[in-house]
Design brief:
Layout lengths: L19 H37 L5 H17 L1 H15 L1 H19 L5 H4 L2 H29 L7 H29 L3 H7 L1 H18 L6 H8 L7 H31 L2 H7 L9 H29 L1 H23 L4 H17 L4 H8 L5 H15 L4 H12 L3 H19 L14 H4 L11
Helix pairs in contact: 1-2, 1-4, 1-6, 1-7, 1-9, 2-6, 2-18, 3-4, 3-6, 3-17, 4-6, 4-9, 6-7, 6-17, 7-13, 7-16, 11-17, 11-19, 12-13, 13-14, 13-15, 14-15, 14-19, 16-17, 18-19
Length: 462
Amino acid sequence: MTAPTYEPAGFTPTGTIAAHTDRRRVVFATIVGTTVEWYDFFIYASAAGLVFGQLFFAPAGEGFAQVLSFITVGISFLFRPFGAFLAGHFGDRYGRRLVLMVTLILMGVATTLVGVLPTYAAIGMAAPILLVLLRILQGISAGGEWGGAVLLAVEHAPKKRRGLFGASPQMGVPLGLLLASGMLALMALVAPGEAFLQWGWRVPFLLSFVLIVIGYYVRRRVEESPVFTELAERKEETRMPIVQLFRRHALLVVIAALVFAGNNAVGYMTTGGYIQRYATDPKGAIGLATADVLGAVTVSAVTWLLFTFISGWISDRIGRRSTYLIGWVLQLVGVFLLFPLVNTGSIVSLTLGLVILTVGLGFTYGPQAALYAELFPASIRFSGVSISYAIGAILGGAFAPTIAQAIVQATGSTTGVTWYLVGMTVLGLIATLLLRDRSGIPLGPDHEAEQSVSPVYGVSRF
């Protein structure tokens, strides 16, 4: 006899939400919340590529100052696991919704404070130290944000629409990039040249305060995940979810992390601010206008958004694994074309290179929420998805801009950067091949035994 599949409370037997308002509210809340979070995170990375080297690290010398600036982008990733550990522990014990409210506020406060931070010229060494501390707070928040957002979306979803629902928090990344790049591009036009360096870059950081208020209002109106609600009613919350996760699922965490690392390293060429810096460096080979490059990144964020949504929808039809495999091939094409197009020095070619790249990025990011949620048992799911994501971010995007900058400075060419990105893409492809497709597996606590069967090929059970 086939075990009954789990559908969250509020769903009809056909798998549609009884109250369509509830569905819209969940999707809207996860999109808005993650967009605000990633706007805050990416506005820092973009500013690190454009101005932080000059404003906070100038005494280190022009070349090394930029490396230090990119290192501060990567440092936050080292604290993502800490945020993921905290969020996983409290999210598996006290709920997804509570964690999301806390991470949203933490990110917004840190970002707003960067906007009022004095520079090195004003307060000396205290400036870069405070900048790093605020970036660390952003990292802790980002480490806890993603897991809660994707589970709130996927655990509310009908079984046959998890990919589409899970794509909603994923869309927050390109939307955050679009908003961040768009705001910086606007300020580069409003306050060009020296004015941008003096005060124009601060405005997008200060805008974060308004966005956080909006995000908080939207998120507090969303109901808790039905999976967690059922666990709480049964008093089955895991006391030490982190311990259980690594005792039984350590291999799965590593493989899932590598899947994300393959996407994240490539994505951080723009979200980490590297392309922005490389293409606008007045002493570099290209020297394009800042506003033009930021406009190109904004355009690519739109295509990334589109293909993130499309791939989530496709994964509900052909499975998460098949969608990912298509995505890795498309991402390889984008990686090989990126720098040859960027290095033409044409803003049109640069835009085309970024747009092509985002097709593969969308296909290797859109299904991730549903893929991760279906990999881990209900009782430790928050910990599993959050920590896998955080480790993948360290292995992938953490120091990708720094590595790219170091390669170009050492070799005088972007060829080495291309092969680095190819290697990370292939690593993600191999990790995906190691996983069985679990699309549609029941997510509720009644099915922990089925969920505990290993999704890793060659491993029968953890």
